Amino acid sequence: MPLRDPDQPAPDAIALALGALGWVLADQARAQRLLDLTGLSPEALRASLADPHVLAPTLMAVLDFLAAHEPDLTAAAEALGTSPAALVAARQSLA
């Protein structure tokens, strides 16, 4: 019997994406840009963090947001102690 549901993303991908979300939200202008470009509202973002059925799509949107702007992708990776490629791979793992 597997230890985790194979249809669920790897915990490391979730942890990395949550770290990326924290990095995005640490800067008010960047956080507002995330909301504007993804169409998420602060309420929907908060709710998605409590609901495992919508957590992965929300985290994919965050990683897509970073991947669409290389300076943010690079800065987030540096702040999180990882590589931009690892953030992109985390996004693929969440799909």
Topology of this protein?
Layout: H1 11-25, H2 28-38, H3 42-50, H4 52-67, H5 70-80, H6 84-94
Helix pairs in contact: 1-4, 1-5, 1-6, 3-4, 4-6
Description of the structure:
With 95 residues, this protein is an all-alpha fold. It has a domain at 29-94. It contains six helices and no strands. The chain has helices spanning 11-25, 28-38, 42-50, 52-67, 70-80, 84-94. Helix 1 packs across helix 4 (52-67) and helix 1 (11-25) crosses helix 6. The longest helix has 16 residues, at 52-67. The two termini are 23 Å apart. The relative contact order is 0.18. The model is unreliable at 1-6 (pLDDT under 50).
Question: What is this structure, in a nutshell?
Answer:
Helices cover 77% and strands 0% of the residues. By secondary structure, the chain is mainly α. Helix 3 (42-50) packs across helix 4 (52-67) and helix 4 runs antiparallel to helix 6.
List keywords for this structure.
disordered N terminus; 95 residues; single chain; mainly alpha; globular; 6 helices
Strand content: under 5%
N-to-C terminal Cα separation, in Å? 23 Å
* Biggest pleated sheet: none
Quickly give the structural class: mainly alpha
- Outline: globular
Mean pLDDT: 87
Would you count the extended β strands for me? Answer: 0
Helix content: over 70%
CA gyration radius, whole angstroms: 13 Å
Total helical elements:
6
Parts with pLDDT < 50 across at least 5 consecutive residues: 1-6
Order of helices and strands: HHHHHH
